[in-house]
Design a protein that fits this description.
about 280 residues; mainly alpha; MetI-like fold; 9 helices; about 70% helix
Length: about 280
Amino acid sequence: MLRNLGLFSKISFGWLTLMLFFAIAGPLLPIPDPTAFSDVSGAGLFTPGHLLGTDLNGYDLFANIVIGSRNSLFIAIISVGLGGLIGGILGIAAGYLRGKTDYVLTVFFNIFLSIPNLILSLVLIAVLATSSDPTQTVADGRRIVVIIISLTIVIVPILGRITRGSTLAWSNTEFVVAAKSMGMKDLMIIKRHIIPNVLPSIYAVAFLAVGIVIVVEGALSLLGIGVGQGISWGSMLARSQGDLEYAPTSLFVPLTFLAFTVIACNQVGDSLRQRLDSRESKL
């Protein structure tokens, strides 16, 4: 697969691989404690003992980037994975069964697409992840679950519509029509002919969706309703948003990693989409 990718796509794929490595193996790496105070605060890049410097609180930025990648990527991948699974099932059902099923599911997709994702997250967090006692803090795990649920609800109609359109196209192909005429059951047709051909389009859009979710998580943290006291790229931005004048590195470092990851997701998604388009044009 990598042989047929351009240089930019290879770099993007390598960057995403590195970020996944940080997310999986981060706690095992020889890095400082991301929550430990340092004697050096507001240090710049390549400071001895602090590769990417420190923020005004003395937290090591590289350690926070590595450990924070787990929450940021975990939220994005789980949200897109659940959204792709649910949206894929609903989209295939709408595109293959058509009729009333297609009409009802299309209306469902359109309704949820009209709801802004930030507004939905705000409402769900206010209802499900906010304590009635202002002196008590809500556990980060609970807030992360609510964020994942809200983002999954946003992703479902997006990937559902993509899956529906792809299913409509593939269900009219000659081999599907021939399978129906031979008496093959619908579930077997979907399993053997529809799902394998619909999955590439879901993969392509899923990479784009991961980039969107990472941005949304950062926006939620800036609004004060993100991961909370946990570590993520968004929480790093929220913690350093007032430090631009005195410690610009503490803001630019997480912003750079977030931006590069989103760009890499978009590039890999576009590459998969181009390969998919060239594959379908040969049919």
